[in-house]
Amino acid sequence: MKCRICETECKMFLDLGRQPIANNFLTRDQFDSEVFYHLGVYFCPACMTVQHRDCPVCSDVFNSTYPFFTGTSQAMIKHFAELAEMIKEKYLPADGSIMELGSNDGTFLEHFKDRDHMGFDPSESVNRIARAKGLSIFSQGFEKFPVGDSGRWQGTTDVFVSANTFAHIPDRHGVLRNIKRMMSVKGVWINEEPYLRSIIDKLAYDQFYNEHVFYTSIVSMRNVLKMHDLEIIDFELLPTHGGSIRYFIGHKKAERNEKIEDAIEREGLNSFEVFDCFGKDVEQRAKRFRQQLVDLKQPIVGYGAAAKSTTVLNYCDIGPDIISKIYDTTPEKQGKFSPGKHIPVVAYSQFAKDDTQDVVLFVWNHGKEIYDKERNRPRNWILPVAQGGAI
Ligand code: TMP
Ligand code: ZN
């Protein structure tokens, strides 16, 4: 495949096989019409971007039934409240303007509802909730926003925020063109995404699924930003989503940023060999995980029907004969079946009555919150990713 960023030929390092749409929880009558695609993960040797080749059309993924709501996790509510506080203190002038790419149910942007703000999201299911909170939402992706030539949008936005959004948008250049045109002179774009270095260190291959197109490393981010005269000013590592990175991005300055260049050196994600080793380790890990479950024998249940679980279940070929059900707190998923493998999703309220010992913690990234919530009932928690992955 040709790289979406620089059109160089890319190399595949992980083949996750035939996969369904990761968040497409189904009813029984939808089984026969389910859509599948091939999930391969590729590395571009020129700009070092990691990406998928195939990505299902946007409207198959982000539409009126998109079932991921940020506000279902207490930890994420707290995370965004803290981010909002920091932005108010350090980055947003009193009369400044803020935009969020991928505003979801407004969990973050509601902190700015009395300020000049705008959210962008193509999924109407989440937009309905955000608008009910009094927020202004543009019902399409940010890359589609017509900036135009009038002064209204040119260089007038002080803060852009995106959390787990930039990686989802195939038209990366479209996003960057709009950011470049709309960002004020001293403006900042705060962008957080799962960090490729953490994915590799934790063998967290379950982060690879169709909603993402790209996986971020500092080196690939530096390279693509440079094409739009933007640069990473600073970054910090975060525990969210099993290990994320938060970039602070601004207009490009003349001088070289030593902190970023040193970080790229330490990161070590600029050669195919690193990714090739990772791909082989994932294959072994997945085989061991499946065998571990088969050896335990039934009953085994799952906890958290996250998009991530779809990659694991389909790659490891685990169906209801191995995991009988998955408990989940999201009403939109309950009573439905998991994509591809059709494991029933059951309301979390039933979990307390289930005394199954062996529980696969698909949402290991929320491990801390969950171990705390479930501490009164000891279970044998099984992680699909490398041991030590839970945080
Ligand atoms: P995420 O890992 O992509 O944030 O997805 C979280 C999913 O896990 C979502 O469907 C809600 C579910 N969930 C639970 O069922 N129980 C929990 O305690 C948490 C934190 C999430
Ligand atoms: Zn490239």
Q: What's the gist of this structure?
A:
This protein is of the alpha/beta class.
How would you characterize this protein structure?
With 391 residues, this protein is an alpha/beta fold. It has a domain at 297-382: 3-Layer(aba) Sandwich (Rossmann fold), CATH 3.40.50. It has helices at residues 58-61, 74-90, 124-132, 172-182, 196-201, 218-226, 258-267, 272-296, 307-315, 367-373, and strands at 11-20, 36-43, 50-52, 97-101, 116-120, 137-138, 157-163, 183-194, 214-215, 230-238, 244-251, 300-303, 326-328, 345-347, 358-361, 380-382. The strands form three sheets. Strands 6-5-4-7-8-11-10 form a seven-stranded mixed beta sheet. A five-stranded parallel beta sheet has the order 14-13-12-15-16, with no helix packed on it. It is globular and about 65 Å long. The two termini are 35 Å apart. The model has no long low-confidence stretch (mean pLDDT 95). Bound molecules: thymidine-5'-phosphate and zinc ion. Zinc ion (ZN) is lined by residues 3, 5-6, 8, 44, 46-47, 49.
Number of strands: 16
Biggest beta sheet attributes? 7 strands, mixed
The CATH topology annotation of the domain at 297-382 reads as Rossmann fold
The low-pLDDT segments are none
CATH homologous superfamily designation of the domain at 297-382: NAD(P)-binding Rossmann-like Domain
Q: Name the CATH architecture of the domain at 297-382.
A: 3-Layer(aba) Sandwich
The helicity comes to: 25-40%
Shape: globular
Intertermini distance: 35 Å
Order of helices and strands: EEEHHEEHEEHEHEHEEHHEHEEEHE
What small molecules does the structure contain? thymidine-5'-phosphate, zinc ion
User: Would you tell me the structural class of the helices and strands?
Assistant: alpha/beta
Q: What is the count of DSSP helices, taking H or I runs of 4+ residues?
A: 10
